[in-house]
Known about the structure:
The two termini are 38 Å apart. The protein is of the alpha+beta class. The chain has 20 helices and eleven strands. The strands form two sheets. The chain has a seven-stranded mixed beta sheet. A four-stranded antiparallel beta sheet has the order 2-10-1-11.
Amino acid sequence: MTFRQFAFNNVIRNKRLYIAYFLSSLFMVMVFFTFNIFAHHPVLTGGIMESGAGQDASLGMDVAAVIIYIFSFFFVLYSMGAFLKSRKKEFGLLMLQGISTWQIRLLVFLENIIIGFLATVGGILVGLLFAKVILLIAENILVIEESLYFYIPWQAVVMTFISFAALFLFISFFISIVVKKHKLIDLIKGDKKSKGEPKASKFLTAVAIILLGSGYVTAFIVEGVNVVMAMIPVIIVVVIGTYFLFTQLSVFAIRKLKNKQSLFWKKTNMLLFSDLAYRMKDNARTFFMVAIISTVAFSAIGTLFGFNNFITHGLRDAYSFTYTPHGETTEEEIEETLAYVETVLAEGQIETINKQPLLHFYEFEEMGNRSSIFMTPESQYNDMAQLLDYDTVRVAKDEALLATLDVAMGGYDLPDMDEIPLETGEELTVTDTLQSGVFPDIVYYIVSDEAFDKLPEPISQETFYVWHAVDADHDTLVEAGEIMRNHLDTYELQPNDFTVYEVSAMYSPILFIGLFIGIVFFVSAGSFLYFRLYSDLEEDKQKFRAITKLGLSEKELKKVLTRQTAILFFTPIAVALIHGAVALNALSNAFHYDLFLLSATILGIFFTIQVIYFIIVRYFYIKQIKQAVF
Length: 630
């Protein structure tokens, strides 16, 4: 048997040992390949990508492919490193049989080439099987008129094969070079040499608390444009604090818990805590990496969906069609526009409720730099509010309400007027502020009908034409809006459903890319945890085999293993969820828009995925331990 045959048989006959590394590598190939299937689809590389927004999205896809490839490199490198670390005993036995360090390096190189080739081919084949599913998902997420049909992705196949062949070749060469020469006794013992009880620095523990606390407080209190200015310093502080959290604070907390005898001596807690500090120390870097990667995934997806939700939510709650002619528009042009809108609505069989409120604009000395301010009587506001299912208001005769669009809270200067003078010499007191999209003005005042009649003469008036659809489907409204926009070529007319469609079409490729990368990061983080868990499998088998002889029952074994696995899986994810929640809260402060429900949904979905992953891994891990023990 030649050395190459020995390397090949070593891979084929030790499937359990190699399967985790192989599947992780195959997954990264599949992700890269399926993304390229999507990115190079004829529909997406054709007409819809020739516009300015389309070209930006196309560039974004290219950048995303590079990001996925770079991340794949480091992921495979880490996976290979963890894989080799678990094989020290095997290398020791081979050296005991006479194999030299150079031959060990050649063995690692050949094995990695074999696994890399199989993972690349396998990833492409699995990607082809799921290609249609990916395209269907993309078709439903993206706002495009054409169907993303299945096609033979030769360009994606060639690009993926060449890219990952080069990646595995480089990593194989690099890993074989850096494989260190160890003493035979150290290799035979593997990676089980005691490193002494972990200790934590009180100073660095305090630093971790201070850094994380200051980062969180800053993220909560900054608002508007200050969020962007504080972002980089907060990220740096929180990243450093997270590292010390796992390397110092966690060990310090565990030592404190171990000193509580009532807790330490309770049932199987002694087994849990005795091993926990060592696991936290050994896994600190993995936990840190998983927490940061998961936070990036949460924050990226939350930011993209939050921004999209922010810029479209006002339009979704608006009237179906609005028309606000400005002073330069002639009566003839107004009549032509109104007639054309009615014609399009009739042709589309769209039933609407029509309103034509007259908007009055006033000028006061207290307005400062403002040229005019819109004021509406309570009855007019309530009449329009009922169309959009907004709450109606009641305004006292000596009071006024300041109404704003949601975007007004995003850095727009609100009026300074606490009191509004009337012609009679009386004054209205501004008592409250509410957010409302009933009228198109960014800020305006609502007064009682009685007080409205006492206002001075308005300096200008505009008619606000509204058509609000009754039980019309979204596609019909979009089609009607596109016809109006193409024919009239005026932005005085706003077909809101079509505007939402345009915005969604512009941002949906970016949303899909962000979602894709976020999922890659999150699944990769789970794979890191999987490697760390199974790297200790043999040690755990020996340890629990010995403890079981002392009387540990099967029920108690499952309880201890479940706790250990849960700590390994959920400690970094819990930290990442907290980081993500703080980051999304900062995003809410930047937009001045409540993203709580969206944030809770995104974080909840990721947590649910992690729970499912934990249940599956726990089942197979406990099964292997039980087979070795009982």
